[in-house]
Amino acid sequence: MSEIHQGKVDPLAAAGDFYDVKGMLAPDERAVLDRVTAFVDSQVKPIANEYWLRGEFPRQLVAGFRELGIAGLTYTEHGCPGGSYLLSGLVAQELCRGDASVGTFYGVHAGLALGSLMLCGSEEQKARFAPSMLSWERIGAFGLTEPEVGSAVAQGLQTTATRDGDTWVLNGEKKWIGNGTFADVVVIWARDTADDEVKGFLVETPTDGFTAENIEDKIALRSVENAVLHLHDVRVPEANRLQEANSFADTARVLKATRAGVAWNSVGCAMGAYEAARAYTVEREQFGQPTASFQLVQDLLSRMLANTTASQCLAARLSQLQDAGGVSEQQASLAKMYCTTRTRETVQWARESMGGNGILLEHDVARFFVDSEALYSYEGTREVNSLIVGRAITGYGAFV
Q1: Of 84, 204, 255, 257, which has fewest CB within 10 angstroms of its CB?
Q2: Residues 152-180: tens digit of each pLDDT
Q3: Residues 206-232: what's their mean pLDDT?
Q4: Nearest partner of 105 among 34, 52, 35, judged by Cα
Q5: Which residues form the Acyl-CoA dehydrogenase/oxidase N-terminal domain (predicted)?
Q6: Sign of the CA dihedral with 352 first, then 354, 355, and 360 last
Q7: Which CATH code of 1.20.140.10, 3.40.50.10090, 3.40.50.300, 3.20.20.150 fits the domain covering 249-394?
Q8: Which stretches of the chain are DSSP H helices?
């Protein structure tokens, strides 16, 4: 190919961070993020496709997470490292840039499970559980969704909790529980049979009456060991009831915080697909020249980068609001709704830019393509998040 039409490649554009959002971090936080990036590139990406095919989580990565010290980033008490929401979001982005399954594992443990403890637990409970969860000695899971109850959990939760002296008896089932097959601490949300309010419980496994069944026939996030949890007369001491979780409003506090994390997850998924598509098209030759030199391919790449950049900037602003303590439920929902929708579009263009090879796992885009479907739905579907925003816009609730 003639050199006359070749110019210098913009490194920010090539890396998918076109507006240098990483540059917003303070130097010490940037150093943390750089370590995460190195971990992703050296340990996550080389094995992502293998474990995706096997439908297993690569447990050897837990040691790497322990060394990174990135659990509990946005909390400071009880040994948490502290850090900005922007750093936390960019960490989630980087993990999902390598593999959305690994990013989801991190989000379930460090966001949903540990977040439930830090937001809804007593000081005694935090002191008892936080150290081992921060060190990844005990892995956490989050049990909210049920086989017959997805979006309607606020009103239709079927798992029950009945007080019996100093213990609670839990009965019911949970579904789609990430880390559920190997978690040491599972946060179970159940409806109190006495007052009909939703309460949270720290279930330590293994325990009598608790079983986990791996969901094996997934097409997305295959390395996340999602489980169906069966709870039959599971007895949990009052000391393990989350003391500050007394209604679904408290559950929603956890979801508001982690919904922003899903927005960042989707940015990472889009970025990973874009980077893989760009790398492929620069190397792939047709008609005697790289396909990246074709106008239609460059148009696809530009649109992918625009989607990724817009989503990343929206998520970054949301993180700034979180750092200022002023984020609302509807702002978090707008970010989750928008970013996952744009990611779904971006991974389609990435697959298209690679032609038939786009469906081969060896080129990575196929994995991002299907994994985006799970991000699009979990932690509140696009429709539910749209209605949360719609209620804020109009003042009318339109959920039923």
Answers
A1: 204
A2: 666 679 999 999 999 999 999 999 999 99
A3: 96
A4: 52
A5: 27-135
A6: negative
A7: 1.20.140.10
A8: 11-14, 27-39, 48-54, 61-68, 85-98, 100-106, 114-120, 123-134, 153-156, 248-283, 295-323, 329-353, 365-377, 382-394
Per the confidence metrics, is the pTM higher than 0.90? yes
The residues, any chain, with a CB within 8 Å of residue 78's CB and separated by 6 or more, are 118, 126, 127, 130, 131, 134
Q: What is the mean pLDDT of residues 116-130?
A: 96
| Pair of tokens at residue 149 | 């109850």
Homologous superfamily of 140-246 in CATH?
A: Butyryl-CoA Dehydrogenase, subunit A, domain 2 (2.40.110.10)
Residues in the chain: 400
Superfamily (CATH) of domain 11-134: Acyl-CoA dehydrogenase/oxidase, N-terminal domain (1.10.540.10)
In this structure, are residues 102 and 65 in contact, taking their beta carbons and an 8 Å threshold?
no
Residue 106, pLDDT above cutoff 80: yes
pLDDT, one tens digit per residue, over 36-73 is 999 999 999 999 999 999 999 999 999 999 999 999 99
Query: Does residue 112 surpass a pLDDT of 50?
Result: yes
